[in-house]
From TrEMBL:
Residues 2-86 form the DUF559 domain. CDD domains: Endonuclease_DUF559. SUPFAM superfamilies: Restriction endonuclease-like. PANTHER family: BLL0828 PROTEIN. This is DUF559 domain-containing protein. InterPro entries: DUF559 (IPR007569), Endonuclease_DUF559_bact (IPR047216), Restrct_endonuc-II-like (IPR011335). It holds the Pfam family DUF559. It comes from Pseudoxanthomonas wuyuanensis.
């Protein structure tokens, strides 16, 4: 969706390094990060919280979606991302 350009929105960069982290998608213009989480994120709650806190301290907002939601409800996810960009 973000990668294929289906979303008519400001430009997103994929797999972008930010500090010690690499984010799935980032829109620098709106300071928005979109992360797609799979099952491995259930085990990484503490490190995800530290990462989110650091990104917020740098002025970024993040939106997280389960991989399953991206596959089964892409339009719903796209609408949510568009709202976050407003």
């Amino acid at each position: 969706m973000l990668r294929t350009g289906r979303l008519q929105a400001p430009k997103f960069r994929r797999q972008q390094p930010l500090g010690d982290y690499r984010v799935d998608f980032v829109c620098f213009e709106k300071r928005l990060i979109v992360e797609i989480d799979g099952g491995q994120h259930l085990d990484n709650a503490e490190s995800d919280a530290a990462r989110t806190a650091w990104l917020a301290s740098q002025g970024y907002r993040d939106k997280r979606y389960w991989n399953h939601d991206m596959l089964k409800q892409p339009d719903t996810v796209a609408e949510d991302v568009l709202r976050a960009l407003e």
